[in-house]
Every structure is written in C-alpha cells, then in structure tokens.
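Thread: Newbie trying to understand structure tokens

Hi all, I'm a second-year student working on a class project, and my supervisor (Dr. K.) asked me to get a predicted structure for one chain before our next meeting. I've only ever worked with sequences, so writing a 3D structure as a token string is new to me. If someone could post the tokens and maybe explain what I'm looking at, I'd be very grateful. Here's the chain:
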Amino acid sequence: MAVETYAYQPDNLVAGGNLDVETTAETLAKGENLKRGALVGMLDADGTLKAIKKGVTDGTQNLYGIMTEDVDATANAAPAVVYVFGNFNTNSMIVPAGDTVAAYRVQGRKIGLIFRTAQAVPA
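---
Reply by user tm_fold:
Sure, no problem. This is what the structure looks like when written as tokens:
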C-alpha cells in the first residue's frame, strides 16, 4: 500500500486574531486554473466561478470569495472550495495582472471578507 505524503507551506492567507472562517463548495468554470488566495467572482450565466475581473458585466466583476486551494479547471469545470467569510491577508491574495487587491477591499467588507495586511511569511 502506497503512502501519500503532503507538504505544508504556510502562506498566512488567513489573518487576524479571529480565525473563524466560512467556506462553501462551488464549481470553477472550464478554462480556469487558479491558485489558493485568488479572488473569484461568480458568472451570472451559470453560477460557476472565475478569477475576479474588473471592467466586465458578466458577474465576475463582483467579489464572491477567495480560493482555499489550487484548482485546475483548464480542461473541464471542477469542484472548488472558497472562503466566503473571515479575515484574510492582502499579501497572500491573488488578482489578475493589471488589477489590485485594494480595488476589492470595500466589496469584501460588504460580504464579510475582511482584508488585512499581515507580515509576510519568512522565506
């Protein structure tokens, strides 16, 4: 019987003294390949998640959650778990090139995602 091994790499995504978080199971849209900490929006058309994107009107311009783990849905839509409530470190959040985490701070606050700037994890 093979033994699976896993590596733990702390990233300080969850921040603050209050470590209460809420997650929900969703579906990552086909064509997406997102890392833990990526901000996501929900497509109005089918309810799947994609990387947050400013300047669009398909629903993904609105912050829905934060990816809890890496998910590759390049070939097919895939299950994904996202944080929908809690305190999170802006230094560990991911947005598309040309965008900023700060642009979504107010949206996050309105839905229970609190953005904090925490000390970086030592290398």
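A couple of things are worth pointing out once you decode it. The chain has a mean pLDDT of 91. The first strand starts at residue 22 and ends at 28. Feel free to ask follow-ups in this thread.
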